Fold:
Amino acid sequence: MDSYQTFFSCSSATPPASSLSLNMADSHAHNEFQGSKTNGFFGLMSEMDQLPVSNANNVPQSRSLFVGSESTDDDVKLAGKKNVGKKVRKPRYAFQTRSQVDILDDGYRWRKYGQKAVKNNKFPRSYYRCTYQGCSVKKQVQRLTKDEGIVVTTYEGMHSHPIEKSTDNFEHILSQMQIYASF
DNA sequence: CGGCTTTGACCGGCGC
DNA sequence: GCGCCGGTCAAAGCCG
Structure:
């Protein structure tokens, strides 16, 4: 069944720019899940590539797996302003997941801090933040109006700490998947 | 009782 | 200058 595919169909296309440090969880990847043994589905997130797309954030591309947007062009718009040094400059990585549920547990602990309605979309967008002390990684979860089976998760920032939950237990992940599959 | 969700208000950026 | 819009805050309530 395709109820919980959670596939990143991009696996076929190998991103030439993958050499960049685009995997947000690679900081400690050596510790937790260097192989693909743990992290059932989300261990795959390291395969995503980032595209310097200018304005494809809202465009529901038919099969495009994810869009990475980077706020590089307009960070200097404040020329002459008292820049605090490190302005924003945080890349965002978005990828689609085929899932029936919104809450995709990737091993980190998230706290929801907002929810807004999105234009051209009848589903709201949820804003989450990593609850690890000092970790300011954020993510947005959005569901497409067209394909309500598609969930777009946008990560912002990188984690610099180990995973909190015990995702080492692969059986736990399997049970989770079964729970999802029961929908 | 503590952590998390909910939800409306608030804020800064941007276009008109 | 004003209003829209996307993102965040924070108080209150919920739940394990």
Remarks:
- Residues 107-178 of chain A form a domain with the N-terminal domain of TfIIb fold (CATH 2.20.25.80).
